[in-house]
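Q: I have 229 residues here and want to know how they pack in 3D. Can you give me a structure?
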Amino acid sequence: MKSTIAKKTEGYGYKYTELADINKYCEMNNIRYYQEIETCEINQKDYIVTYIVLDDKIEKHRGCQIVEAVLQGIKNPVQQYGSSLTYCRRYSLLMALGLATEDDDAQSFTKQTITTEEEAKALQITFGKYNGKTIGEIYESGDIKYLEWLFDKGKDENIKKAVSILTGLVEMTPDESKQEINAMPIIETQKQRIKDKYSADEIKNILIKLNKSKLSELTYEDAEKLLRG
């Protein structure tokens, strides 16, 4: 199966892949799909959901959040919503198919909409090893290093904002960021791994050595050193 689609069209200061080209790609690779709008129960926002039908199997992929239509200058809100919907359908389909493209116009519709902890937890990742998982699920898994990577390297402002809300990370130098993470309190996943690795007596001696009275007083860095040791 092919993995790339070239950009064809230019307009409004950026280039993009036409939906017709993606449909042609699907036809060439015997892929069928359909899309619908789904409202997230947590943040009550509307998202494009793409269902990929391949070899009689159906895969569901949540894609882009649909930007709310607002009156801007002489722009018609209905027309703006229609443009947003078209963009979201196209880009969500690209994500669902796992297609690589030079299409970088996501920023033209990506606005910072994450403002609450509930919205931060509900935001879904659509790439990488946590594809399909929410920021909240990643946070609860204890993979703070991955969230740190998303915050430092990511370009999506909503993802950066969501990570910031849940972890307290702020823009800083790499050294400052590392120090911030290391000073964080131990997370539940680390606590359980320590309990699995050490006996009750060993944990008691460790706490005495570190001048702590309980595991919850350990820092993220303390826990990592114990788990590596």
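Q: Anything worth noting?
A: The longest strand covers residues 46-54. DSSP finds ten helices and five strands in the chain.
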